[in-house]
Design goal:
The structure is a single chain. By secondary structure, this protein is mainly α. The chain has one domain (about 5-80). The protein is built from three helices and two strands. It has helices at about 5-15, 20-30, 35-55; strands at about 70-75, 80. The N and C termini lie far apart (about 40 Å).
Length: about 80
């Protein structure tokens, strides 16, 4: 599978998740090392879905980047760092 196809699979899956499940997907990636096409596609799909849902994630990123350095929680549509 090509990167775009992998990304599309993750996007379709994430559209079905509720907000807390999507936050859980992000938190599961915090602190992990290693990189590959599937992981990059997964993280890009999380980012895209946050944008699509209108989350305010300005505390950890912008429309081009996200920091996976800290776990987060969602409060009234705002992504906030935990700890």
């Amino acid at each position: 599978m090509k990167a775009k196809e992998i990304y599309d699979v993750f996007r379709r899956r994430m559209r079905q998740y509720d907000d807390q499940e999507l936050i859980g997907c992000f938190n599961h990636e915090v602190g992990k090392q290693g990189w590959g096409t599937a992981r990059a596609s997964y993280m890009a799909a999380i980012h895209s879905e946050w944008i699509a849902r209108g989350f305010d994630f300005s505390m950890i990123g912008d429309t081009r980047h996200l920091s996976f350095k800290h776990k987060v929680r969602l409060v009234d549509g705002v992504v906030k760092r935990v700890g």
